[in-house]
């Protein structure tokens, strides 16, 4: 009986470790799955400190240098690369990153009150976006998938064969203004 209980306890322990490991992504080996884990951490950190969130992303997917980003053909044709200002926002940094899905242009924008919004523009859909949506809203010609992050919103939409994800939006009105400017 005691031997059977010991085997059962070990089996339960192994199942717990495997279950927790699978949920945390410890056993995933693809770059796409790694990207999902990194961006989930980025979202969690962004709600607390957008600049620390930026460090998480920079360590996982180092951006091109500022000069390379500014002169990159990807940035020169992207809406994020062309828009130094969005309604109520000023771009304080632009990065081009080579992600598993594609090259991605990221603009980090700041409001007058010091809070941040970040916009990612990429050419292919990624397995990480705001697809764990709470709801969808119509923003001009685009349908935005929303994900609530505490008092902020993350949203993803497709427009003209480009994909956008914006993080840190204060509400649907601000989102619609941003989408309109990137349209």
Describe the protein in words.
It is a single chain. The chain is α+β, with helices and mostly antiparallel strands and 183 residues long. Helices cover 42% and strands 31% of the residues. It is built from 7 helices and 8 strands; from the N terminus they run ααααααββββββββα. It has helices at 2-24, 31-48, 50-60, 66-71, 73-76, 79-82, 172-182; strands spanning 85-86, 89-98, 103-110, 116-122, 135-139, 142-149, 152-159, 162-169. An 8-stranded antiparallel sheet has the order 1-2-3-4-8-7-6-5. Strand 2 and strand 3 (103-110) form a beta hairpin. Helix 2 packs antiparallel against helix 3 (50-60). The chain is globular, with a radius of gyration of 19 Å. 31% of the residues are buried. The mean pLDDT is 78.
Oligomer class: single chain
Task: Please tally the β strands and state the result.
Answer: 8
Q: Can you write the helix and strand succession as a string?
A: HHHHHHEEEEEEEEH
Gross morphology is: globular
Indicate the low-confidence ranges by residue numbers: none
**What average pLDDT do the residues reach?**
78
Order of strands, widest sheet: 1-2-3-4-8-7-6-5
Q: What's the layout of helices and strands?
A:
Blueprint: H1 2-24, H2 31-48, H3 50-60, H4 66-71, H5 73-76, H6 79-82, E1 85-86, E2 89-98, E3 103-110, E4 116-122, E5 135-139, E6 142-149, E7 152-159, E8 162-169, H7 172-182
Antiparallel strand pairs: 1-2, 2-3, 3-4, 4-8, 5-6, 6-7, 7-8
Helix pairs in contact: 2-3
Supply database-style keywords.
single chain, 183 residues, alpha+beta, 8 strands, 42% helix, 31% strand
